[in-house]
Amino acid sequence: MKFPFDLLPNAEFEVAGFGTNAVDYLIRVPAYPQFDSKLEISSYDRQAGGEVASTLVGLTRLGCRTAYAGRYGSDEAGTFGIESLDGEGVDTSYVTRADCATQVGFIVIDESTGERTVLWHRDERLGYSAVDAPLGLVGQTRILHMTPHDTAACIAMASAAREAGVIVSLDADNVFTDTDRLLPLVDILAATTGFVEKVTRTNDTRQGLSEIIKRFGCKVAAVTIGGKGSLICCGDRFIETPAFDVPGGCRDTTGAGDAFRAGLLYGVLTGESVETAAQIANAVASLKCRRDGARAGLPVKPELALLLK
Questions:
Q1: Nearest CA-CA partner of 269 in 1, 9, 58
Q2: What are the phi and psi torsion angles at 43 (to 5°)?
Q3: 130 exposed, middle or buried (CB, 10 Å; 0-12, 13-18, 19+)?
Q4: Nearest to 62 by CA among 294, 280, 289
Q5: Would you write out the chain's pLDDT as a tens digit for each of its 309 residues?
Q6: Do residues 27 and 119 touch, judged by C-beta distance below 8 A?
Q7: φ, ψ for residue 233 (rounded to 5)?
């Protein structure tokens, strides 16, 4: 099945991202601690993360030209985060900094399962309004990929993208004010099952995805379903794709959804069918789980090709 939209033939960037970044502190524990207990940690580490920023790194490692627009703090963590993108080859010309701390995440990783719990904080000064949305980036890309935290700015960006013929992709895990105004401007929705339930008031994922497409006009709506893989609704068809086993076993699921989105957009960009793009997305997510953190396990093309083979 082909994707029901056309990409612009040429642009400076293949994917431009607008939205969240973070610096993550990864804490490995033998098992998730009980309330009011003490537990010795196995190890800890600091890594760059954030949903949109990590998806762009995943796309860049697969050979795509990418750019990031977002706001870091004025602290050393902000410098660390920006340098992490520069080092991967993501264009940071549209990155700005605010006089506050960079968004932080404390991520507790259960070694027995690889599952993680995320504790985070984002200073409101890191946000964007519709007035300061970086609209200049929109005309330089084939796909605009966003998270909806700064919804007014996202609406402005998505509206500009629609006028320019740019495909709009949204990574959604929570409902914000005016989410219902943003969704009609979205072509590709990659969401969590929790988001679908909140928007549609149903715990039937298939029914929820179908309702989102009918109500808001999204061309494609996808969810990740953990170790079971993914489910994509395109038009009136559902594509359910099983997960790949993680090579060497799952160490950490942090950023698996971001990796899935990188693989899905890569499939769109390379002209694959919806079915093949779903396989690519699941494969990228699986390979990410080989390593701790949102980015360390993200594959390059030969690694992806080997797993798909």
A1: 9
A2: -170, 165
A3: middle
A4: 280
A5: 999 999 999 999 999 999 999 999 999 999 999 999 999 999 999 999 999 999 999 999 999 999 999 999 999 999 999 999 999 999 999 999 999 999 999 999 999 999 999 999 999 999 999 999 999 999 999 999 999 999 999 999 999 999 999 999 999 999 999 999 999 999 999 999 999 999 999 999 999 999 999 999 999 999 999 889 999 999 899 999 999 999 999 999 999 999 999 999 999 999 999 999 999 999 999 999 999 999 999 999 999 999 998
A6: no
A7: -110, 125
For strands 230-234 and 220-224, give the pairing. Answer: antiparallel
What radius of gyration, in Å, describes the C-alpha atoms of the chain? 18
Domain 13-21+50-101+127-299 has CATH 3.40.1190.20: yes
Torsions phi, psi for 264 (to 5 deg): -65, -45
> Residue ranges of the domains in the chain?
13-21+50-101+127-299
Quote the strand ranges of the chain, DSSP E.
13-18, 22-29, 43-49, 66-69, 71-73, 96-98, 104-110, 116-121, 141-146, 167-172, 188-191, 220-224, 230-234, 237-241
For residue 138, which of 96, 94, 175, 104 has the smallest C-alpha distance? 94
* Tokens found for residue 4: 């029901």
Joined together, the tokens standing for residue 70 give: 């977002």
